[in-house]
């Protein structure tokens, strides 16, 4: 089959979803007596001067980096048929601990950053590991346990922030950890912008962007080119066939959740190491839930997730200009929500199309095949608005998933 | 294998005493259910072919056949879950066409599923009326419902108390609730799908009592089973299905379990020619006192001891559900042993993981290829890797060698005649026979010391069947040990060097396949004949 057709099939679902979402959002806006065309115009308006435009671009990229990492963390688990709803708690807890550790030590530059990164990954991996252990030993659904652990993680994070790790003075309006010394900062990439001949904006482009790209590439290779990735995907496609092929399903659950958690630990670091340098009460939240939406939009593939993250980041950026122009900020939330719903529907449509064409024997339809668990019966609740409280994510599993759980419980018992 | 009494394809003996000399044909009363030439195809398979079924009003009509023979497909057709591609369905002499089960229910057909569909936290009454609730002023009319359910229960001797919580009921009672559900919807013809599979013997007797009541009230029962003794006890007429088509009818009064078994598994296929034994001395697989425990009840595999030598095919015969699947899982390391040891070559592999066993030279052709053998939504080359993730040619160190995997998949497709567009085709696009040939090719390519083949030709067409048999024989000649689990007597007798019969988890007889007839084998499988003097 031609490359063109392959790409076409792969893009079919997400593009359809975005188009449908735009149409629905327009209808909603029209009903609210907001001019949709005008709203979209504001959203794509990056400003007049080169400096403003580059600034807008930097804002989008800075936002996309954590979203990409969040989507990646969720996707790793999704590919094995696991629903890591706990990314939110994992990264918040990891970030506060990493901020505390980073502020408490002084090390030479790269080592300091490395230590913070490793601490964050380890904390989040352990937190995700609890979910895995509960699942393989007691048969607890990872959806339930990871949601509950979110609540616990947020509680512990608050306790750490207001208690042992507090660095801000009594009575400060925003409580924060002590600031990480400069050796623990990740330098910005503004030099690169300059080298590209772009205006140097007042905003700093996160250096963590490079880390995210590397992590994305590593995960892509790991999932698609290695034995480990094959085992993981096989377990996602058919747990029973994977076991019969020699995959230790319980071990895979633990490994996958640890990996998913380790990536989740990185989510807070672009902001922490690139701009805030401390964990605060108003630290970005909701990224874990947005990550579910981004993973879904990107069909659990790193490239797709990157595009999904950019789209969501673009929508997020539009919040401020929309409000300045007196548009309700909920416009963006509505679009994000409808995109997610549309993606779920479009994915299923694309899956059926591909499967039907495969069953007719009209040649390979690998586009939809690869992403295992994303197919049927999974839906995500509305993602939290940017910076707001995550509205939680209702994930339902239908076809095949129930049976899958049963089997794991059997082996776990 | 054409045995004297039963010419190929037309089991004359049983059917002669069968349907009352064609009384149904010209008889006065029209048949309650008649299926004519029903054919149902799924992509790549013909699940039912030219099915002929004639069920008289007021009889218990049994449909017997192996698992996978097409009984369920047929009943789904009759219950309106899908439409046949060809053929006619006649109820009381009138042709009908069902779009959905709702149509079938409206026409008086009811289905009692093998797996109960009851809400545990609802009462009997609530479960029975669920979906067709009598209402008064928009609210559930409990009085009417209770009256009707009590009436049904008394009339057919079901002994149901409408206010019991289903959660508190035993299996037998739950089944009666299911029957009541169907009767509540005014069914005149009941389909019972393997109703005895979940029951203990006393409950089976009670069920048969209930069926007698239903019959006395003039209802028709279609009873699906593969338990021949029960069928002979309860049925008034029997229709046998084999490989998707009806092969004959039998009168339970004049037909023995053996004759039925013979009809079920078929004796018309050519038996592989007499050949020289290739059995060598060295054992490749030794099972010693292997027992697999179940959470409740008797162990599914009970004290099994057997040896497979190099170049030997050891067959395990048995009616489905007598522990063969559990034995296969135990050998593959998918199910823990309660006691006993498994040795592969010189190694005690009892505690080894499935992967370690596969690496040590255990090949596996699973019974259910969709469940255990393939990733349907993955391309063929990925399916080539499945089960061989740690071995060349498709794997290099920790990495997948995509190019080599594709190349080797192409080779398998060529050598084993797998018909598909190419290695990038999704497995789901292949027919059952081609999927199976890919699995066989994949397992053979790793040159296992022992091949565990569970129903290797189930659900594949005759051509693929012959090809797979030939491959197994060639592998055996090269010294591979093969443990063959099958329900196909011709396959077992034709391929095996040693034949064990498994009944209720135990190996009850060891037979010489060159001396045993399918009738004898059938006798051992159903327990009608015991091991005395055998082996």
Automatic annotation (TrEMBL), chain A:
Keywords: Cell membrane, Membrane, Transmembrane, Transmembrane helix. It is a multi-pass membrane protein. Residues 404-413 have a biased composition (Basic and acidic residues). It is found in: Cell membrane. Residues 372-393 have a biased composition (Gly residues). Pfam families: BPD_transp_2. This is Nucleoside ABC transporter membrane protein. The chain crosses the membrane at residues 54-78, 90-107, 113-136, 143-161, 205-223, 252-270, 276-297, 304-324, 330-350. The keyword Repressor does not apply. Its main location: membrane. InterPro entries: ABC_transp_permease. GO terms for molecular function: transmembrane transporter activity. GO terms for cellular component: plasma membrane. Signal peptide: none annotated. It comes from the Bacteria. Residues 355-413 are annotated as: Disordered.
UniProtKB/TrEMBL annotation, chain B:
SUPFAM superfamilies: P-loop containing nucleoside triphosphate hydrolases. Its main location: membrane. One of its GO terms (molecular function) is ATP hydrolysis activity. It is found in: Cell membrane. SMART domains: AAA. Residues 33-268, 285-529 form the ABC transporter domain. Pfam families: ABC_tran. InterPro entries: AAA+_ATPase, ABC_carbohydrate_import_ATPase, ABC_transporter-like_ATP-bd, ABC_transporter-like_CS, P-loop_NTPase. Keywords: ATP-binding, Cell membrane, Membrane, Nucleotide-binding, Repeat, Translocase, Transport. It is a peripheral membrane protein. Residues 1-24 are annotated as: Disordered. Residues 1-14 have a biased composition (Low complexity). The keyword Transit peptide does not apply. GO terms for cellular component: plasma membrane. Signal peptide: none annotated. Residues 15-24 have a biased composition (Gly residues). PANTHER family: CARBOHYDRATE TRANSPORT ATP-BINDING PROTEIN MG119-RELATED, GALACTOFURANOSE TRANSPORTER ATP-BINDING PROTEIN YTFR. This is Nucleoside ABC transporter ATP-binding protein. It comes from Geodermatophilus telluris.
